[in-house]
Amino acid sequence: MPSKFPLLNERVYAPYKIAALVEILAEQGIAAVDSLRGSGIDADSLDDPSVLTSVRQYAAVCKNAMTLSKDPATPFKVGARLHLSAYGMYGYALMSCLSLRDYFKLGVKYHRLATPTLTIEWTEYPDKAVWTFPDAFISSPSRELREFLIEQQFTQHVTHLQDVAGRSCPPMKACFSYPAPAHADIYPEYLGCPCHFEQEQCELIYDSAILEHKPQLAHRHSAALLQETCDRLIGQAKTSVGASGEVYQVLMRTPGIFPSMEVVAHALKMTSRTLRRRLEAEETSFVAIVDDVRCSLATEYLKTTNMSTDDIAMLLGFSDAANFRRALKRWTGKGPGELRR
């Protein structure tokens, strides 16, 4: 299981959110060089498909926007401009979902691919579906920055659901945990619903009836392929983030050999107790990572080689093929033949 929080300085995201914000500020007469000041990004790199940026760099540009812009609608305008087509595989995976319920589920599952500044969760009730936004990824954000990020995130959600549904699909209501700001009248204009402040938590509430609706671009084959690609991208992100990423890298250096946690901890120049504590802080464990590595290797071997199931089982350290099949079913819900096809 991957860490819930990405590293703020990890440069793993395309700069589409930064580009949208810089574009909105440019329309207000603010030069890109000023919008990007202190972020470590230059204007020319925003159009370079090979450039990757971090959550912290995006936060730096948001802080510049808060200082430079006189328009309180700026975060709403950014959220309205960030259509799912800007999000690469993540966006297309969501647009090809077979139902809006799947869209809600996958929006959470793959959120770490989308330069996340807030955590998101959703819960289905008999009469409503609720998005909640419990935390900011940026440590101790100022009140102004957190509200800026919430305003943008809420508008993005409304924009994205409209992209997927193919029609306007506004929430029943939006709730905010902070007092109404001076520009509170802007909120319903962009969110399309009544907005309530000083609530228990930040929430977007939808009628649960929409969950059965079929997205306009729903396609079973495309959905399966794109979700598989997103799973692979999530896996690649795991190998570069935090203590869990370091463990992945150690294990992947010698595929088929699975050293103990004590051996891995020694390789990382720490005690096994420290490693366990760091992994727990990232909401994972050594056993979960070993299982994940075995699952990744098994899937790769089955899809890209002609090795027998017995040989793959032996390479992954299983005593026999039957144990391997049971583990594979537990990891993926599929047998070797299904994955190979």
Instruction: Catalogue the unreliable spans.
Output: 1-7
Order of helices and strands: HHHHHHEEHEHEEHHHHHHHH
Strands, count: 5
What count of domains describes the coordinates?
2
- Cross-sheet strand order for the largest sheet: 1-2-5-3-4
Largest sheet entry: 5 strands, mixed
The total count of helices amounts to: 16
Radius of gyration, CA atoms, in whole angstroms: 22 Å
Sum this structure up briefly:
With 341 residues, this protein is mainly α.
Textual characterization of the structure:
With 341 residues, the protein is mainly α. The protein has 2 domains: 16-212, H-NOX domain; 239-340, Homeodomain-like (Arc Repressor Mutant, subunit A, Orthogonal Bundle). It contains 16 helices and 5 strands. A hairpin with a 3-residue loop joins strand 1 (121-124) and strand 2 (128-132).
Task: Looking at this protein, list some descriptive labels.
single chain, 341 residues, mainly alpha, H-NOX domain, Arc Repressor Mutant, subunit A, 2 domains, five-stranded mixed β-sheet, 16 helices, 5 strands, disordered N terminus
Q: Which helices and strands, and how do they pair?
A:
Blueprint: H1 16-27, H2 32-35, H3 55-68, H4 74-81, H5 88-95, H6 100-109, E1 121-124, E2 128-132, H7 143-165, E3 173-175, H8 186-191, E4 195-196, E5 203-207, H9 220-238, H10 242-253, H11 261-267, H12 272-281, H13 286-304, H14 309-315, H15 321-332, H16 336-340
Helix pairs in contact: 1-3, 1-4, 3-7, 4-7, 5-9, 10-13, 14-15
